[in-house]
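Record passed on here:
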Amino acid sequence: SSADMPRILLLLPTLLLAAACASDDLTAPPQGTLDPRVVELMRTVCDRAKTQTQFRFTIVDSMDEVLPSQQKLQFTHRREITVSRPDRLHVEIEGDKAHRSLWKDGQTITLADHDHGVYATLPDPGSIDDMMDMLWHEYGISTPLADILSSDPYAVFMDGAVSATYVGTGYVGETACHHMAVQRENLDFQVWVGQEDTRLKKLVITYWQQRGEPQYTMWVQSVGDASVMSGDEFAPRLPEHYEPIELTPLLAETGR
């Protein structure tokens, strides 16, 4: 994703959620309070996230781009993600604005741009969190995965929340879901969780403080079998004709 795209708060979509959601006939709390049903569900989800060490999943997401004329354009991507915590990651991205790969094998980070036949390598700073922070702060590379793979997803979602509401039953396709809404100081997000299988189905984030109030939307397309990982998934696979390039850190001229 582009350097000027805001970092997106996402939740790991493969996690099993707690089945103990309150029924729809309960009155939603007034705005400005945290519904304990939402807090409990989010806490359970995020606690489980910390225990998962290997997983793979596929998402489809879209992001609004607001033009100076205030017209909105929407760009969609499909992302296949394979993770082995704490330090290995493989991502395949294909869509309207990008066709890229990322491999993190615990020693080196490799970024490939398939549209231009180039790649860059960087030293691996450590954990997946460390890598995401480095890419953002040192190179200005923002990605929806920066927070989807966070080691502390509860903080990503709920720290600074000013309200949390259990909205009721909503549908993603034909799937009945628990629909929840949370407000933070600088954005709002909504979550849909399947009532039958208690999996996250959809997430919508509204950046209401930004011009045109752009939205990010994510759908969970599939969850793969993580028990058959060989480790080869994290080794770079580059065509021979790809040319190496160098990524220039931000503020290099200031001696940062």
